Amino acid sequence: MEKIRRPSHAGSWYTDNPKKLEEELEGWLSATGLTKSTDVRGVIAPHAGYSYSGRAAAYAFGNIDPTNIKRIFLLGPSHHYYTPKCALSTATVYKTPIGDLPIDLEVIEELKATGKFELMDLQVDEAEHSMEMHLPYLVKIFEGHPVKVVPILVGALHTDNEAMYGRLLAKYVDDPTNFFSVSSDFCHWGSRFHYTHYDKKCGPIHKSIEALDKMGMDIIETGNADAFKQYLSEYDNTICGRHPISVFLHMSSNSSTKIKIKFLRYEQSSQCKTMRDSSVSYASAAAKVDA
Question: In terms of CATH, what superfamily is 4-186+239-271+284-289?
Answer without folding.
Answer: LigB-like (3.40.830.10)
